[in-house]
Write a structure and sequence with these properties.
The complex is a heterotrimer of chains A (about 160), B (about 90) and C (about 130).
Chain A: H1 5-18, H2 23-43, H3 56-80, E1 87-94, H4 100-112, E2 116-122, E3 127-135, H5 138-156
Helix pairs in contact in A: 1-2
Chain B: H1 2-30, H2 34-59, H3 63-88
Helix pairs in contact in B: 1-2, 2-3
Chain C: H1 10-36, H2 40-43, H3 47-70, H4 77-105, H5 114-131
Helix pairs in contact in C: 1-3, 3-4
Classes of the chains: A alpha+beta (about 160), B mainly alpha (about 90), C mainly alpha (about 130).
Chain lengths: ~160, ~90, ~130
């Protein structure tokens, strides 16, 4: 009946946000969401495995704080120019995660944090090329990306 | 009082977003390479979308939201297809 | 239905004005950086200012305005926010790959080649194993 419960709920919430919250729209939205998730089931995508879903709010909070901080940092770089010793550079980072959903979430986190951009991922080497705008110490960046995000993602999806 | 505050801030935000759009289109016209132009187009549509949402706040109508949603959807599709073209269309593989 | 700004209390109007100007200023700073930064790979960082908190600020202002003026929760702007956050990485990743591809074909000196990346990945993995 419900092959993808998360997708069904997300579609229903989207329907109710776009329309008014009434009983009629609740029924219509449920019908649309259930049919759409059956359509999705016909495509047979891999089901994402959420293991420790209760860690998701923690990840979300960390990312929110980091996005605000790097927004201010990048604005400073743009308006004032870089301080001496900082430079833009490419970082090649070997990854331990290989779940597609986890990789997608990681890409969204890295790109929506201004100051770092996810350039290309090589699935054979399992490494990603990242461009950093304001780099001081490369090892510090690697350490931060590895320990701050990747560990959490490894725990959540596996 | 609150109407004045909202009206003033909406006008200022609109002017700021207009300047941002103008700057993005400068990059779109003069950007040295094709990828710079595409990113310029991307920044242009995001700022246009934000401008429509501020119009919505200024006039108090929710119609502008739908227009912003459509711009967001179509802009994404156009940037992705242009990027795809850049990757496959120009260099023979 | 037309929502009127006069129905909003002054503190809410101040919050709306703050979020609006914050978002618009971030969008402007992003555009300035987009014009000023010298290389393509640096310029790719500038528009993310307007797609992260530039969008976030203006959407928050819009949600606050319509919710308070209408007297009930109107949150459909969240959809635009989620949509922009999810689609920007896709666009930028595709563009960056296209740019890397073109620069490699022209043997651009600043761009790491595939061979260099393979070597550095192997070295990193080796040093990880030694450390562990």
């Amino acid at each position: 009946m419900f092959p993808y419960p998360l997708l069904t709920i997300a579609l229903l919430v989207m329907w109710l946000l776009l329309n008014d919250f009434t009983l009629g729209h609740l029924l219509l939205g449920s019908i649309v969401a259930v049919f759409a998730s059956w359509g999705m089931a016909a495509l047979r995508p891999d089901k994402p495995k959420l293991r420790k879903w209760y860690l998701l709010p923690k990840l979300f909070a960390i990312v929110m704080v980091d996005v605000i901080r790097s927004n201010l940092a990048v604005s400073w770089v743009i308006l004032r120019g870089r301080t001496r010793g900082h430079h833009a550079s490419f970082i090649n980072l070997p990854l331990d995660i290989d779940d597609p959903t986890a990789l997608a979430v990681f890409a969204v986190i890295i790109t929506s944090t201004p100051g770092s951009a996810w350039l290309e991922y090589d699935s054979r080497r399992r490494s990603v090329l990242i461009h950093v705008l304001d780099l001081i110490d490369e090892d510090e960046w690697r350490d931060q990306l590895k320990n701050r995000y990747e560990k959490l993602l490894l725990e959540i999806f596996s | 009082m609150s109407a004045i505050i909202i009206f003033t801030s909406v006008s200022i935000a609109q002017v700021i977003l207009m300047i941002a759009m103008a700057i993005s289109s400068v990059r779109m016209f003069y950007g040295p390479r094709a990828q710079d132009r595409i990113i310029g187009l991307d920044a242009l549509y995001v700022n246009a979308m934000l401008l429509l949402v501020t119009f919505g706040i200024g006039t108090g109508r929710t119609v502008y939201f739908e227009a912003a949603l459509v711009i967001g959807l179509l802009g994404f599709v156009s940037s992705v297809s242009l990027a795809k073209f850049l990757m496959r269309g120009e260099v023979i593989e | 239905m037309i929502y009127s700004a006069a129905d909003v209390p002054v503190w809410a109007a101040a919050a709306i004005a703050f979020f609006l100007l914050f978002g618009a200023l971030l969008a402007l700073i992003g555009a300035i950086g987009f014009l000023r930064l010298p290389t393509f790979y640096e310029r790719i960082h500038a528009p993310t200012l307007s797609t992260s908190w530039g969008t976030g600020g203006i959407m928050t202002a819009s949600i606050l305005f319509f919710s308070i003026a209408g007297g009930r929760l109107v949150a459909h702007e969240i959809l635009i926010g989620i949509f922009i956050t999810v689609t920007t990485p896709v666009t930028f990743m595709l563009l960056a790959r296209a740019a890397l591809h073109r620069d490699r074909v022209e043997n651009h000196p600043d761009v790491p080649t595939r061979a260099e990346l393979v070597v550095s990945t192997i070295q990193d993995r080796a040093s990880d194993e030694k450390g562990a």
